Amino acid sequence: MTPAPVRPAESPYRSYVYAYPHKTAYRPLPERPVLRELWGGEPQHALSLYLHVPFCEVRCGFCNLFTRIGSPDGLTTAYLDALDRQATAVREALDSDARFALAAFGGGTPTYLTAAELERLCDIAEQRMGADLRAVPLSVEASPATATADRLEVLADRGTTRLSLGVQTFVDREARSAVRPQKRAEVEAALGRIRAAGFPVLNIDLIYGIDGQTQASWLHSLDAALAWQPEELYLYPLYVRPLTGLARRGELESQADWDARRLALYRSGRDHLLAHGYQQVSMRMFRRAAAAQAGRSEYACQTDGMVGLGCGARSYTSRLHYSFDYAVNATEVRGIIDDYVATEDFHRAEVGRYTTPEEARRRHLVQSLLQAEGMPVAEYRARFGSTPAEDFPAELAAFETRGWLADDPLRLVLSPEGLAHSDLAGPMLFSPEVHRLMAEYEAK
Ligand SMILES: C[S@@+](CC[C@H](N)C(=O)[O-])C[C@H]1O[C@@H](n2cnc3c(N)ncnc32)[C@H](O)[C@@H]1O
Ligand code: SF4
Asked: Which of 168, 180, 203, 248 to mutate to test the pocket of ligand 1 (most atoms within 8 A of CB)?
């Protein structure tokens, strides 16, 4: 086999931009700003609430999310105790009439918690934070093995509108190759329990680009997912990142071949879902056209703040994005969770990045341009008093040259090729400073 190139400059898979800036651009905040001051004067009538549960039964080979395997000696109880303390401190920092419009439990695997612990998690969101979980969209992530009937019953009863199941593949051989110990029978049983629990929206996560995955086996997984008529589907290109299980396995095909295979799988997956009545929302996300909009969790006003609780959660005010320390390596993750659990004073922000007016424009552009419906130029102008063409001429010229922009006089919209290259287009919109910070971040 020819040696793989180190990293071709033009790989379509540079990074998944789900938030800007990425956590690896955050740094310790030496002044440790007081939350009350950070949140003072912020709009708080439609906040988002995110609770992070950093536990899993296994560590999948591809995963670099902030999570650990197992929870020795009552660690989940201690973690919920810390969440409770943090929620109390954060609520004190918010206005008395602050309101939440959206809630999500993510991970890791929130359903790693027992049914009783999930009740407590909901109590923290409701009683400590004041979120009315039955009145707002509530999205919860689950894995097949932990999506048990008793847990799902609690989640349905407490108002979950969207249950997102990590499936990745319906082919057992591919699950093994992705180092995800999972059998199809177990996935099908979990999907049956989820449908029986009656959540308005079922989302299924699938991954393409796994070793040994072919066009035929990919379509087989898509059809197996479609049989459940999920309201949403997320198709993730496989990333192999430093310090994950797969990163230590060595390369089986050249980077260029792998990129080409992922792009081909993306196109066939997209076309398959479009032909089966799904609409494309972003490169990864597809929504069943006939599905009711109830429980729609994607929409959040660009200017609303986010309150994240838990040691892997990010919070956003208009001036500062902040969180706790971040790591992938198992020992580091355990250390950060142990520190979090031992924390008594949650009144300050520890790690983060302040927003500048230029970064606010970039964030707006990154977050709306990577959506299939694109960005109304008038909306941008109303918010910033300028146009994207005035603010980002070089970036948009590069997109134009590559054929990534669709022809639309009112909106800035990616073409199908632009959307296919979202993970390259997104990072091209980052500021040089954010690129520098991300490059300097030492993976741990
Ligand atoms: C928090 S997990 C989902 C819930 C649950 N922990 C599970 O795995 O079933 C989020 C999703 O991110 C995707 N993901 C994580 N790491 C990835 C990677 N390296 N490449 C592609 N997709 C990845 C997977 O599809 C995964 O389901
Ligand atoms: S993919 Fe899900 S179950 Fe696997 S390690 Fe990551 S968060 Fe945990």
From this structure: 168
